[in-house]
Sequence to fold (498 residues):
Amino acid sequence: MLVTRIKNEAELKEAFSGRTLAISCHGCREVFFPEDQVEKALNQYRNCLVGAASLDYLCREDFSQVYLQKMENLITQSSRVVIFSCGVGVQVWAKLLPGKIVLAGCNSFNINGFQGLTPTRWNCHQCGECWLNTTAAICPLTACSKGLLNGPCGGAKNGKCEVHPSVDCGWHLIYERTQATGQKFLPAQKVAVRDYRRLVTGTTTREG
Amino acid sequence: MVLAEKLTQGKFALTSEIGPPKGTEIEPVLQEAEHLRGKVDAFNVTDLQSSVMRLGSLATCRLLVERGLEPVFQITCRDRNRLALQSDLLSAYVLGIRNVLCLTGDHPVLGDHPGAKPVFDLDSVSLLYAATTLMEGRDLAGNPLQGKPEFFLGAVVSPVADPAQPQIAKMEKKIEAGARFFQTQAVYDLKAFENFMKSVSRFHIPVMGGIVLLKSAGMAKFMNEKVAGVSVPERYIKMMASARKEERVKVSISIAAELIKGMKDLCQGIHIMPLGWEKYVPEVLTAAGF
Fold:
């Protein structure tokens, strides 16, 4: 199970720094979805918005494909799509929009128990500090066998991971997608180091 | 420390590599290093290379220091979290080790304990950053240190990877995080290496080109198929395949010498990875004009 929490002010400001289509997931809402905060953010950044929608189960590729067709106009008008959902929703939309910048508006936190409702090949590690906005909406924790945050190791061959020739190199996918969206590969930022406290805080299971 | 002096003064440097044994029989490995005394500037000591459990790099480095040989301590992020990595860096310093090569490390599934937990709490970039913060007198969490280490920090890059851009972008991250020299993956394609050196010349950082001695045509084919960033040209494979068994070493030495001659005007050093053929390194160096 998971909890989504809205990203901090600075990250939201950066996400909304262009003509934005904002999509909230109205799907499983497993334990908590920051509905009021998303509304507040949409209001705060209303001048950047070309549109906003609240949809069911962004993690379902077939559902999302149908929504996308209906919103073609808005997507064309936008320079970026900001998704308020768990990391799966963000990654599914990134896949459906290969040339578009897709950004996460939330961090997803893990709670022990049944994982999600929809079987999907897209993974969200529920790490509590979503990295998708620096990695072209492909999760480096789940797409890279080593979960590397600062770029590819030297182990990939022909775009495939050293762990197994059938496994794509996650960082190769990230690089390819930055070429398609025009995002910077390894954007200037502080050296990325995970905060493992976020795997358990923000949830209630351990803190009582 | 010779390696740091040479590389920072723009002089040409040579390094070789030794792999600690699987077990406690350390003498043969130290003998290999002894054969190269005075011929190379420093010895990389691998850190459980290919994810195979062995004697440690730190202890082996110290044994080299005791014998007056200069080590390059290879340290990977595969087996230790950020506490253990920083602690081992401090330990290395008090044991007289100054050159540190920061690596991410192979995945454990490639080695002889494939069920081991892959740690990767840090990666090569954040490890370099952690080492840099230690040198500044604090740890990765910002806590002050009582006494700070000094290191000559190195990193690796795969110069003929395809595409090259992601590797170069990461190289830049490593420099920002504190890398002061680079050693490369094995180079067999001089043209590709030249292109790589042109594209990283703006970094103004010493690069040591990597040499792996070819042992057979089969090894070359295996590397082409399996090893990232390595592409042995057909010409070398044919040379190895057509050589009679007793001539193979000679042919291998001449290929390595040809590559070193081709590389030495493009970069600032050569790093030889003999992979068991340590005893031929002096001949390689002689054939290459050193």
